[in-house]
Amino acid sequence: MKKVAVIGGGTMGNGITHVFAMNGIPVNLVEMSEELAEKALSTIEKNLDRMVKKEKIDATEKVETLESITTFTSVEDAVKDVDLVVEAVPENFELKKKVFSKVDEAAPERTILATNTSSISITKIAAATSRPEQFIGMHFFNPVPVMKLVEIVKGFETSEETYETIEETARLLDKTPIPVEDYPGFVSNRVLMPMINEAIYCVHEGVAEPEDVDSVMKLGMAHPMGPLRLADFIGLDVCLDIMNVLYEGFKDPKYRPCPLLVKMVDAGKLGDKTGEGFFEYD
Ligand code: CAA
Predict the structure, then answer these.
(1) Which one is catalytic: 14, 118, 119, 197?
(2) ipTM for the complex?
(3) How far is the CA of 143 from the centre of ligand 1 (A)?
(4) Does the active-site annotation cover 118?
(5) Could you read off the pLDDT of 57-66 as tens digits, one per residue?
(6) Distance (Å, whole) CA 278 – CA 86
(7) How much distance in Å is there from the Cα of 46 to the middle of ligand 1?
């Protein structure tokens, strides 16, 4: 893996860029404008500073990491000489399809295409490209520089060679790869999201206040964040999208999104990113 391109510099994209660059793999980072690319770079710099302060890396490593990131506003230019493309644009199938059709046209034949989707079928996105055997899900977790897991999702046609290369790449990033098949929510969100949804039902039905629901799970189950704090951190819109994927994918009423979750998304209270969700943020 000599060079990669990361498409999208949002929360997940800048974290993915951070870990590749910090592990010595040059990254071409694509954003829609120079301003957004600058914003992604400044988030990466802030997170690297945090690591320097904690003595996880030194100042030289910080500079080397930043120097190995090149920003682009054109997908075609960014992917023309890379071995791997990791897409981290918003969770919208049509948007991902559009991005991958440009990537597929411009990237060399050898290039592996990966998506960081947390909910859309890998097989369905892969089918929109001319190389489904070289297509795979590489699902990272927020905050990417901290969380050790990469869920590796095999599509219907993903080859063993592609899987092995991506597994090896995840280890190179000091992550632990876990193989999963392409089912709604994979493993992570099939287990996590119903727990979050159930925590929201506890508030909806007046079982307990949000702080108390979270305290139960933090103090009783040693979760680092309560499920409602975590829902705000992930984004309530993302949580609702994933619940809908489970609900529609399994056709099982146990995955019905809690009406309070739907209402909060309708009201624009999406969590950290809008300053308010189950809790308030500055
Ligand atoms: N970059 C680099 N380092 C970071 C960081 C970042 N963005 N965010 C936190 N850190 C580091 C801190 O510097 C700190 O380092 P030390 O251990 O050396 O002190 C460490 O991580 C812990 O951070 P804090 O002390 O600031 O705060 P904390 O102890 O409360 O931990 C947390 C914060 C790591 C986010 C922790 O609360 C946690 O693990 N929460 C659960 C996160 C989680 O479940 N993520 C998955 C979400 S689901 C998802 O992403 C996928 C999906 O499909 C929806």
Answers:
(1) 118
(2) 0.93
(3) 5
(4) yes
(5) 999 999 999 9
(6) 32
(7) 14
